[in-house]
Amino acid sequence: MDRLFLRVYLHIFAGVLIAGLAARAFVIPRINAQLARNLEVSLAVPVGLMAELFEARYREHGDFGGPAEEASKRFGVPVALIPQARTPLDAEGAERLARGQVIREGPVFASMLYARIEGTSHVLQVGPLPLMFPLGGARGGALLLLFVGGLSLGIFALLRPVRRQLLDLRRTAEALGRGELGARAQVGSRDVIGALSAAVNHMGAELQRSITLRDELLHNTSHELRAPSQRLHFSLALAREASEPDAREHAFDRVERSLSELDALIDELLTYARLKAHGAHKETRVDVRPVLAALCETLTLLPHKAVLAAPGPDEEPLVVRVEARLIERATSNLILNALRHANSRVQVSLSREGRVIHIHVDDDGPGIPLAERERIFEPFHRLDDERHGFGLGLAIVHRIAEVHGGSVRALGSALGGARFTLSFPA
């Protein structure tokens, strides 16, 4: 018997004991009073008839003779004739007795019945009645033992599967704490413990996924940092060995480009890490139409092989609750990604669908294979071997949409290339 069983058993037994004491104090007295009334009503007729027999005897012979002793022997109940002054009745009982009623007196299971004998100063006394308490003696003790045994077995049968599930949960939690991320608990029922097991399994799966993503992110980050770092060391070595000023200046130019690439990569990593850790903090009401128009106007000034078409003017404001800086970053990443892959045209448009506002960025480039449309938003994931950025731009877009309660999807475009749809609640 472990502590869980003992605690539950003691709590239930204490509750039953308190209920029994309360019943003894408030319920049993009412039951006894009703039993007393039932006894008085049930035995009023035979006791009244017995009193009439004694009355007839007295009228005929002038004495009571020996019928009282004979009745006691025949029925096994004490029968006596006593003076009315010796009855232990109160004023109300004496008054009822004078009216010819049969009166019960004393404890329920030792009741005394009194009936007046008309024409005499005596009262018929019957009792105490040989009534037995149903739970008295060994019977009550046996019933108590049966109750305690049945309660113990019931609680043990109830807690045994609960204990087994809790032990399984404990083993699973300890295994997860040791780093065994594949450990899972058995979901054996649909009660609260089954729901807890499912929650622990979900936590383990998310923990395993997060650590896997973290390890992958660390691996990819170290790989991405290694390339500009190696170029930086190589360029510094060239600068040290260069004897001509032009060669030395060219080597220093390569050092500056490598440092700029490192700065850009570190900035992307910090942005992604901040979004993963803290989300958005300065959400305001932003009309996305003028934000996109200004952004497209700025990006059009940059040299690109593709033509950027901004969304047309419209009377209807499209307001979302976001952090303005982050929505500019997300849409800028999508547009720059489209300009990088487009053949000749990139189109930005807006639409509203119920309580959701969509920002669409279409291009006429090679598009995205169907199998890659989910993985494209993972950190450092690229579709080809060519280096276009660090593979963090779309991951940042996905995280910005996520922290604002929105979403981003990669689809096929009517222009023939890819369509990225960034959605936010209106």
Automatic annotation (TrEMBL):
Q: Does the keyword Glycosyltransferase apply?
A: no
Which taxonomic lineage is given here?
Bacteria, Pseudomonadati, Myxococcota, Myxococcia, Myxococcales
Q: Where in the cell is it found?
A: Cell membrane
Identify one Pfam family in the record: HAMP
Enzyme Commission code(s) on record: 2.7.13.3
> What Gene3D superfamilies does this protein's entry cite?
1.10.287.130, 6.10.340.10, Histidine kinase-like ATPase, C-terminal domain
Q: May I have one GO cellular component term?
A: plasma membrane
The record, for PROSITE patterns, names:
HAMP, HIS_KIN
Entry membrane topology = Multi-pass membrane protein
> Which top-level group of life is the source organism from?
Bacteria
Q: From which organism does this entry originate? A: Myxococcus llanfairpwllgwyngyllgogerychwyrndrobwllllantysiliogogogochensis
Which reaction does this chain catalyze?
Answer: ATP + protein L-histidine = ADP + protein N-phospho-L-histidine
Q: Where is the HAMP domain?
A: 160-212
Q: Name all Histidine kinase domain ranges.
A: 220-426
How would you classify this enzyme at the top EC level?
A: transferase
Q: What is this protein called?
A: histidine kinase
Instruction: Write out the GO MF terms.
Output: ATP binding; phosphorelay sensor kinase activity
Q: Where are the transmembrane segments?
A: 6-27, 141-159
Write out the entry's keywords from A to Z: ATP-binding, Cell membrane, Kinase, Membrane, Nucleotide-binding, Phosphoprotein, Transferase, Transmembrane, Transmembrane helix
